[in-house]
Amino acid sequence: MQRCDRMIDAGRRKFLSGAGLAAAGAVAAAVAPTQAKAAPPSARVDYPSNRLGNVHDLKVDEPLQVSYPDGDAPGVLLKLGKRVPTGAGPDGDIVGFSTVCPHKGFPLAYDKSDRTMNCPGHYSRFDCEAGGQQVWGQATQNLPQYVLRVDDKGDVFAEGVDELLYGRLSNVL
Amino acid sequence: MAYKRQIDRLPIVPKDAKEFNVTCHYCIVGCGYKAYTWPTNKQGGTAPDQNKFGVDLGKQQGTETAAWYAPSMYNIVKQNGEDVHIVIKPDKDCVVNSGLGSVRGARMAEMSYSRARNTELQRLTDPMVWRYGQMQPTSWDDALDLVARVTVGVINDQGEDGLFVSAFDHGGAGGGYENTWGTGKLYFGAMKVKNIRIHNRPAYNSEVHATRDMGVGELNNCYEDAELADTIVAVGTNALETQTNYFLNHWIPNLRGLSDAKKKAEFGSEPVEPSRIVIVDPRRTVTVNACEVEAGKDRVMHLAINSGTDLALFNAWLTYIAEKGWVDKGFIAASTKDLDKAVAANKTSLEDAAKITGLTVDQIRKSAEWIAQPKQGGARRRTMFAYEKGLIWGNDNYRTNGALVNVALATGNIGRPGGGCVRMGGHQEGYSRPDYPGPRPAFYVDKLLIENKGGVHHIWACDHYKTTLNALKFKQAYKKRTDLVKDAMSAVPYGDRDGMVNAILTAIKRGGLFAVDVDIVPTKIGQAAHVWLPAATAGEMSLTSMNGERRMRLTERYMDPPGQAMPDCLIAARLANHMERVLREQGKTKYADQFEGFDWKTEEDAFMDGYHGHEKGGQLVTYERLRAMGTNGFQEPAVDFKDGKLVGTKRLFADGKFGGKDGKATFMETKWRGLQAPGKEAESKKWPYLINNGRTNIVWQNAYLDQDNEFVMDRFPYPFIQINPQDMADLKVKAGDLVEVYNDNGSTQAMVYPTPTARRKQTFMMFANPNGVQGNVVSPGVNELVIPNYKQTWAGIRKIADAPGGVRHLTFKSQDYTAG
Fold this sequence. Notes:
The complex is a heterodimer. Chain A is an alpha+beta fold. Chain A contains two helices and ten strands, in the order ααββββββββββ. Chain A has helices spanning 2-30, 32-35, and strands at 50-54, 64-67, 74-79, 94-98, 109-111, 116-118, 125-127, 133-136, 146-150, 155-161. Chain A has a four-stranded antiparallel β-sheet, with no helix packed on it. In chain A, strands 1-10-9 form a three-stranded antiparallel β-sheet, with no helix packed on it. A three-stranded antiparallel β-sheet of chain A has the order 2-3-4, with no helix packed on it. In chain B, the strands form seven sheets. Chain B has a seven-stranded mixed β-sheet.
């Protein structure tokens, strides 16, 4: 009985979502002349795949200044010299972060003595070895981290960000 | 992997979004926010004429922009029955925070009840009663009828002393003028309830009796005074974490020297320089670190005293300052009395104080100089004294509080720009009630409950299970008593009201206790309760409170309460209505008449009856006028309404007239007497580790909302205990390990956080955490006015287990900012 109910429920949901799509289609048809070429918007923003550097450019604890997804969004590539859960590259130790504090937008500074990003504005600090977790601070989110891909030549590409960047209501403007 | 929301864009606030005044409902500071709401099927655009901010949102916004909000500031909530988008963001135009949001307040939107986005679904939506062996929903009328019948039944048997009450006395969420009045009028007006306690202590008393007895109200300055002071003295207050934006927006500018121009404008030719700061705290906090970063080590004096010895330090300061002749003779003659008596009685040499506090003679002398040595040219030094839980929940509260006020009075620093002797505060304030009808000292309510006293317990936004002392023994006794009633209730069909009430009253006669819990979420003490009544919080109701500089604001109702939840003041009113009805049924007409006057329909009705009708200056204050004053409000008390604006009071006692009968402030005799609370001295000798305790930045109060927030629970799934790494080696524990903290009072658990700056054998544990209650190991010892002593607690520590799964991804690095 229970299983049957669930199937009915699932069916109803499917029906409702189908109806929603149909309605949207109807509207689109009505204004077809102006909207025919417009692609439906995606649920998430489309991130560019940008080359930020090469693994050979990276030395342990020497941050490489980068920007992503565009020139107005400063960030950093770091080789930690230690494999971390989100690390890229042959040694699993390359990570990339925004360097704009998600609290009030002050520029973060890297402290290599304990591999943290530190904010001179209000003293927040984020752990580069723990996915940008805020060690202590005022931000209501952990530090936005890049999704990285390293190709056969060792080029490091950023292809996404996992939190909203400070100062923009869409990560890709 | 750290918790990430995977949100990469947010709906834009449209130009025509509705706008509401909001004061953060968490801590005392009361930062100004704005709430914006708009229909779910609409959104603003990036063009300046398409959004609320009037700027091009297609571009990166700069540092400290007002045109950005974090995902935590966004949600979808119900407003008048419809889903709406909501953004609650800090208000740049509020003088309290100037656009700053704390890690707590900036999550207000995310911490709202949203069925659309699954946030805070723990919120209570319906009255619930114990039925068929578990809590089950019912109607307001049914729940209140049961509560009224049992309460009246207990009063019939035992008198009003059989009714025990635990109730908030503060402002902000779970409080405010409307709600303190609603509950106060019920328990102190209609009834004369004496067995009542406050949310964080076991009796109906003041945390700062001494300063009040001296005629010096405790919130006597304004936040600007922290920008004007030559020296700030911070006692037992970790302001960066617990009054965050007061510290960041008003202390730091002074430490950085950014308020020198303001000082010159105010003080003319008097020499000015960036502030110095004296911090009295056994622990090196993030506040100490931030002060050193900004002002340099030579302008910051951290006095890491032996825990609980503040009183000896303050007496030595008074003695030395009096000997040096640095007292403010004119002020003392005009506005105070009994200085000589206090100086004689409290006489403490620098050497004696050094011995007791563990400080050096030089440290004590130098700190006294920073406080009182006249400036170049002979101008008086402007010193602001600020204290909070390190003093309030510390050894010998009454005398220690008095001893600090002595120093502030002696140096003429109350009622003057750059001065003040103030508590920093926990919650906001919002107290409006008839007088407490009980004695002083007030009854030790928790103790009486443990001793089987009382028959019915009404609980308003309190959770003793997390926030009391001697918590383990309290819970054991409380569970036993409430279980008696639960078992009796389970034996009767719920629909048989007479049979049910009889069964409950019979169980009460056998030592049982009937518990009614009014709250916004299911609490720990609620596990023992028989009735839950769902309350609304700030923003779901209009709410007024004042902050630590007496700044009163109205938070406008911007969303619906969950389900059938109601403001506390209206719950109190409806309970009064039901009690009146039941009493009339029983022919007790005269007593029933006392429950008249509760015909409020809205929280504004309660406000007009209470604050407007009873408080000093209240006759000038209405919702309409407060709304017009926006997020800046005015500073209480109101003294005038002019040109469409409420006129307030920047500082208390500016005219040199104090609260004593003769208009004078009275110095207090405050002799040092060691660890005052019974049993503490022996405990300190028996157990190896000091279990200092308090709040941490990311969690508000006892985590009642944070416990359902992914961002917070990802960071601290268990309360941390900061331990020196060498002590960790002795204990054979690693970062993240779960340890048991135990002594003769009880036991609890915490997660090890290695802390090289912690002194050996001195730990610090997050307090009031749902997953490890520090109060379990706090002894029942209190002071002469039944103020608890949470801070001076000693215990053993032993390993329970390696770091559990939810802990292994956490960072355990130093919480101190480094310049890199």
